Amino acid sequence: MARKKIALIGAGNIGGTLAHLAALKGLGDVVLFDVVEGVPQGKALDLSQCSPVEGFDAKVTGTNDYKDIAGADVIIVTAGVARKPGMSRDDLLGINLKVMKAVGEGIAANAPDAFVICITNPLDAMVWALREFSGLPHHMVVGMAGVLDSARFSHFLAEEFQVSVKDVTSFVLGGHGDTMVPVIQYSTVSGIPVPDLIAMGRSSQEKIDAIVKRTRGGGGEIVALLKTGSAYYAPATSGIAMAEAYLYDQKRVLPAAAHLTGQYGIDNLYVGVPVVIGGGGVEQIVEIALDDEAKGNLSVSVDAVKELLVACKAIDGSLN
Ligand SMILES: NC(=O)c1ccc[n+]([C@@H]2O[C@H](COP(=O)([O-])OP(=O)(O)OC[C@H]3O[C@@H](n4cnc5c(N)ncnc54)[C@H](O)[C@@H]3O)[C@@H](O)[C@H]2O)c1
Ligand SMILES: O=C(O)C[C@H](O)C(=O)O
């Protein structure tokens, strides 16, 4: 059986890390695409030279030609620019929208059967635009943010409760911006909801509120530290988890930006909600009951995403 093919559009910090993880995990042959000549080829050669040490047979190649992504099973898109200190993710919209157009057309022409995971920011608007430009079925185009935001939330909760991260589950819903919605009622340690843990005296509401705030600002905290760009190790790990869910038909329940058609009262928008990802792509949207606070916060977050789509449509008339 031929190996699967993973195409990575954007060979920057996340693209390179994705390629490394995909090769180490043996997901398939990897094609790194970038508009900058030499970068995908150089990273591919460097990564290929890991293979004798790590013992992987996957081929890693670099290209500036979309034809080389033909037949890809999974495509992960990180093409575009990342923010620097003082910027919001939304400041990237104008430049990255143009990139999504080129990428969407490249995918449509060369790999229309792929499962596409978009990571480029501002995420919820870019995944929506990428789907529009590519014309792929909605269930085959999904945005990565919730896995990362939930990983940050779980990491902070594990530190607070001094337990293994393996025993913490959490969900962050909504748009991938400052309005994202870490949902405390569904965040647990070995099944015990965080509100119960507070009632048991294991933490306080003030400490959990501070963790929610830190989670919401989690990307910005790293941008401020790095100064030259944004996080890439955890974003790449999160993208790979979604790719594995598709490639191995794992039917994982993951928070992801999916196309909603009335669920949560939201129509024709990509927003972070729990979904089931398996061999059929986004196979289900999971509608969980939210308490009034979470519902209100989700509505604020959805409004922020709607504003971004208005901005996209004003820039590119073909999106109307
Ligand atoms: N969704 C998330 O949770 C999340 C997390 C982290 C970063 N991001 C976003 O992911 C994106 C990539 O981040 P990064 O750290 O890898 O940035 P980076 O600058 O290191 O890499 C981006 C790469 O895209 C390439 N590129 C630019 N235009 C292109 C085009 N038209 N076609 C193909 N490649 C093109 C650049 O040459 C560069 O190599 C940013 O927009 C960032 O904000 C999102
Ligand atoms: O914060 C950023 O700009 C990158 C990314 O969205 C993140 O959350 O790390």
How would you characterize the overall build of this protein?
Its EC number is 1.1.1.37. Catalyzes the reversible oxidation of malate to oxaloacetate. Residues 5-143 form the Lactate/malate dehydrogenase N-terminal domain. The structure is a single chain. The chain is of the alpha/beta class. 43% of the residues lie in helices and 22% in strands. The protein has a 6-stranded parallel beta sheet with strand order 3-2-1-4-5-6. A 3-stranded antiparallel beta sheet has the order 7-8-9. The model has no long low-confidence stretch (mean pLDDT 98).
The CATH superfamily of the largest domain is identified as: Lactate dehydrogenase/glycoside hydrolase, family 4, C-terminal
Question: Strand order, biggest sheet?
Answer: 3-2-1-4-5-6
What is the second-level CATH architecture of the largest domain? Alpha-Beta Complex
Give Rg in angstroms: 19 Å
CATH class of the largest domain: Alpha Beta
Number of domains: 2
End-to-end Cα distance: 43 Å
Bound molecules: nicotinamide-adenine-dinucleotide, (2S)-2-hydroxybutanedioic acid
Binding site for substrate: 83, 89, 121, 152
Keywords: NAD, Oxidoreductase, Tricarboxylic acid cycle
InterPro entries: L-lactate/malate_DH, Lactate/malate_DH_C, Lactate/malate_DH_N, Lactate_DH/Glyco_Ohase_4_C, Malate_DH_type3, NAD(P)-bd_dom_sf
Family: Belongs to the LDH/MDH superfamily. MDH type 3 family.
